[in-house]
Each structure stands twice: as structure tokens, then as C-alpha cells.
Design goal:
Number of domains: 2
Radius of gyration: 33 Å
Distance between the termini: 84 Å
CATH class of the largest domain: Alpha Beta
Mean pLDDT: 84
Number of strands: 12
Order of helices and strands: HHHHEHEHEHEHEEHEHHHEHEEEEHHH
CATH topology of the largest domain: Rossmann fold
CATH architecture of the largest domain: 3-Layer(aba) Sandwich
């Protein structure tokens, strides 16, 4: 006969099982009810939506899709159809050449016949067809360029109309490349447009910058405002020896008298130019790329890029707000006239170079001799430090090159001492006192310093002597030698460089 405790245990277990079963059944019933209710609601919403769609009748006709596969309230008229037909015939050669020369008469007397012929036979690629690119395209077509490839992934929006060269309300929602083609065909019907409604990237650069009908591009125009695509395009052109000109940032600019065309190494006072130049230098490209840039500085009352509201950051990753990965998520303040000025300056450069017209721009910086001197001084400083730590310094090598020196001086420290801000008699030196084993002797017959670029700061020669004597060899702490302002400046600059280290 079972004892009392076992009976109680079985009864308790049975009761718990009943509760669990009851809870499971209740959950299933509630879940089913919720799902059923949602299904009923969806059914009603679909029925309401269908009921709201009017029946097709004589009073209600569906509009045709546009040539881009989108619905439009703007229907083509007879004039549009005539323009398209004329352009199709003109591209096949059915257009009087005397009429073309008459239309290009002013360019002809300026560039002469040879220059105009070179321009007319040129093949130009424009990457980015927004405010800058559209004005460049319009100027080139009007000047006689007969072969244009347009590359842009974006569509015309209402906000595009304050700066786009040719877009109208009727073009909103259509690809920018086709908008430009359709409008410019009405001006220069003989122009051959190759429209690529695509995002430029290094993976498809070979196809996007390929020859047209066997003709390699005579010039590439970079009118991209995304840093990754911009650097990829410029680096590709540099490697493949394609002539290119790049437009830097027109956002937040308003002074046309501060616009310059020069080598990328000379560009200043522009965040887009700075980021592009730094990324290219990290890839080994120091100069040799002409750019259009503005030296206008920010000031009180001037437009500036506003930070995102705190509530957007609170929602999570702000990158989720961007149209594509790594694209900006904020609206840039842009005065509509400035992209036009940038675009026309770019087109002017292409016209002069293609036609062979004489011109001179700002020269590139040539500071290789200075970088060699700084590299030699750094070598000497490392040897003295090694001797002070008890190492044999003869034959000591440092893993820093002339390109590394130029990158640190120009892009990280902007050609100025981090301590005093002076721009003369510059050199590089370790900032923190190294650990005892900072010389690698594991490779037979070779001694090399474990120095890294992130260890170095830019100072004047006089400041370097003081820093070496007091901090690196003398053993004083940084806070005993420098005030909080200098320490913060160095820390900020080093943090900034860490963000760019992945591009090296």
C-alpha cells in the first residue's frame, strides 16, 4: 500500500500538469484569435482598397508608362516626338553639317577648326549627373562634344530642381541620365548619349569606363559626392592613365571668387577635398589629379552641415536612413548657383585640354626634398634613442617611407606643428616614450625599430630637440612638459588618424 507522501506527490504533479495544459491551450486559443482578427482586418483593408479603384471607362483612362517604366501624369506631345525623331536621324548622319557648324560658330572662331574638330570627335564620360555633372554635360554638348557617356544611379527629385541644369517638373521621378539625354537632344540632336543608370563602383569600373565603339575616353569627369565612389573612380583613372578632373564640394560655398582649378595636392579648405586627398595619398597617389575646389572658409552666419537630431541617433544606426550603404543621410546646404559654377569650370577644363587650347593652373606641391630631410632627421632621432636605451644603433632601420612622411605632414598635421602651429623647419618625432624592447633583433643581420606612424607627431626642429631631451630620454611625463590644450590636440589628431588607418 503506497504511503501518504507518494499520493500527495502524484496529486501535486497531476495538478501542475493540468495547469500547464490549461495555459498552453489558452495560449493557442488567444494566438488563434489574434491571427484570425488580423486576417479579417487585412481582408477588409484589401476590399476597401479594391473598392477605391475606379472602373476604367470612357471618362477614366489609364496613362501610359514612360520610357523608363514609370507612370507619369505628363504625356508627350507632338513637339517631343518630333525632337526624338530628329535626334534619331541626326545620330545616323541625317543632319546638315553646315547647320552644326553654324550652331558652333562662336566656339569655332575661338578654338579654330582643328580644336573644334578634336572636340567634336571626343568621347567624354561624366560620372555623377546632379548639379555639377548636369551643367558640365550641358556645356560640353553645347560646345560640340558628340559622344557623352552619363553614369548616375539616382532620379530627379523636386529638391534637384534648384541646381540641376536641365531638369523640369516633368522629369521628377525619372533617372537623371535619361533626363539629361532627353533635354539635350532638343539642343544638340547629333550628340550620341550612352546612358548608364547605375551606381559607379570599383567592381564594375572596367565596364563603365570602357571604350565606346572602340574609342577610349578622352576625358573622365568626376562629379560624385560620395567619398568611396569618388576615390575608387580617381584611383582607377590614375592607375589606367585616363585623363580625369574632379569636382570637390560645392555644399556650404557661396563665394565664386574663391574657386580654383589646381592639382589635388594644392586643394584646401574643403572637407570633401581633404578626405579624398588623404584617402588617395594612402593609396600612393600624392598629386597628378586636377580638381575644382573652393578656398572659401566657414564663418559666422554662413551655412554649415547641421548635425542629425538626437532622436535619430536614439533610434539606432543612422546608416539605416541612407539610400545606399555609406551614403550621406543629411541634406547638404547648397546654393543653387555654386554647383553650376563648379560644373562649368570642370567643362571648361575639359574643353581646353581636349581642343589643345593653351592654359596654366596652379602647380602641384613638390616637397619631396623636404620629406627626405624629415625622414633623415627621424632616422637620427631613433638611433639616438636606441643608444640611450642601450642598443647598438649602427644599421638600425625604421619602417617609415618618404610617402609616409608626406602623408603625416600634409594630411594628418596639415603642414603645421601640433605644439605651436608653426609651418617652418618641421620634423616628425615620437610622442610617447617607447617601451624598452622597441628594437626588433629577431631577424639575423637586421635591426629595425618597431616605430609606427601612429607614434609620430609633427613639430618644429627646436620643439623636437626639447621633446627628445625631456620626454623620450629624460623621462619626464607629457603632462609635466605640455599644457592640457596641446595634449588634447595631439589626442584628437591621433584619434582622427585611426579612422583613416583602414584605408592604408
Amino acid at each position: 500500500m503506497p504511503d501518504l507522501s507518494s499520493l500527495v506527490s502524484r496529486a501535486t504533479a497531476s495538478h501542475k500538469a493540468q495547469l500547464v495544459t490549461t495555459a498552453v491551450v489558452s495560449g493557442v486559443v488567444v494566438g488563434g484569435a489574434i491571427l484570425g482578427l488580423q486576417k479579417v482586418r487585412r481582408t477588409y483593408r484589401v476590399a476597401d482598397l479594391k473598392a477605391s479603384i475606379p472602373d476604367l471607362s470612357e471618362e477614366h483612362h489609364a496613362t501610359r508608362l514612360t520610357e523608363f517604366g514609370a507612370a507619369s501624369i505628363f504625356s508627350s506631345n507632338n513637339e517631343d516626338e518630333r525632337n526624338m525623331a530628329l535626334a534619331a536621324r541626326a545620330r545616323k548622319g541625317d543632319y546638315d553639317d553646315d547647320l552644326i557648324l553654324e550652331q558652333l560658330a562662336r566656339n569655332r572662331v575661338f578654338l579654330k577648326d582643328d580644336g573644334l574638330e578634336r572636340l567634336r570627335s571626343a568621347f567624354i564620360i561624366i560620372v555623377g549627373c546632379g548639379g555639377v555633372g548636369s551643367h558640365a554635360a550641358a556645356a560640353l554638348a553645347r560646345s560640340g562634344v558628340s559622344n557623352l557617356r552619363l553614369i548616375d544611379f539616382d532620379q530627379v527629385t523636386l529638391s534637384s530642381l534648384n541646381r540641376h541644369a536641365v531638369a523640369t517638373l516633368a522629369d521628377v521621378g525619372t533617372p537623371k541620365v535619361h533626363c539629361i539625354r532627353r533635354r539635350l537632344e532638343q539642343v544638340t540632336p547629333w550628340t550620341h548619349f550612352d546612358c548608364r543608370n547605375e551606381l559607379f563602383g570599383e567592381d564594375n569600373a572596367d565596364a563603365q569606363l570602357a571604350p565606346m565603339d572602340g574609342q577610349a575616353p578622352d576625358f573622365v569627369i568626376d562629379a560624385i559626392d560620395n567619398i568611396d565612389s569618388k576615390v575608387a573612380l580617381l584611383y582607377y583613372c590614375y592607375k589606367h592613365k585616363l585623363r580625369v578632373i574632379s569636382s570637390m564640394g560645392a555644399g556650404c560655398k557661396s563665394d565664386p571668387t574663391k574657386l580654383f582649378i589646381g592639382d589635388i595636392s594644392t586643394s584646401t579648405d574643403d572637407p570633401l577635398s581633404k578626405a579624398t586627398r588623404r584617402r588617395l595619398r594612402a593609396l600612393g597617389v600624392k598629386h597628378g589629379i586636377p580638381v575644382v575646389f573652393s578656398t572659401e572658409k566657414p564663418g559666422p552666419g554662413k551655412a554649415e552641415l547641421m548635425p542629425l537630431p538626437a532622436e535619430e541617433f536614439a533610434k539606432g544606426s543612422v546608416s539605416d536612413l541612407s539610400v545606399l550603404p555609406d551614403f550621406r543621410v543629411r541634406i547638404l546646404p547648397v546654393l543653387g548657383t555654386m554647383p553650376a559654377i563648379f560644373g562649368l569650370a570642370v567643362a571648361n577644363h575639359v574643353i581646353l585640354n581636349t581642343a589643345g587650347y593653351p592654359h596654366e593652373y596652379l602647380p602641384a606641391k613638390s616637397r619631396d626634398k623636404m620629406y627626405d630631410g624629415i625622414l633623415g632627421a627621424l632616422q637620427g632621432a631613433e638611433e639616438r634613442l636606441a643608444r640611450a636605451k642601450g642598443y647598438q644603433s649602427q644599421g638600425l632601420k625604421i619602417p617609415i617611407t618618404q610617402d609616409d612622411v608626406g602623408y603625416l605632414i600634409e594630411e594628418v598635421y596639415h603642414g603645421r606643428s601640433i605644439i605651436s602651429g608653426l609651418s617652418t623647419r618641421l620634423c616628425l618625432i615620437r610622442w610617447n616614450k617607447p617601451v624598452d624592447n622597441f628594437v626588433d633583433k629577431h631577424t639575423p643581420g637586421q635591426k629595425n625599430s618597431l616605430l609606427e606612424m601612429k607614434d609620430l607627431v609633427c613639430v618644429t626642429k627646436e620643439e623636437a630637440v626639447k621633446h627628445e631631451k625631456k620626454v623620450l630620454i629624460g623621462g619626464k611625463k607629457l603632462e609635466d612638459v605640455y599644457d592640457a590644450k596641446v595634449l588634447l590636440a595631439v589626442e584628437t589628431r591621433m584619434r582622427e588618424e585611426e579612422r583613416f588607418e583602414r584605408f592604408r
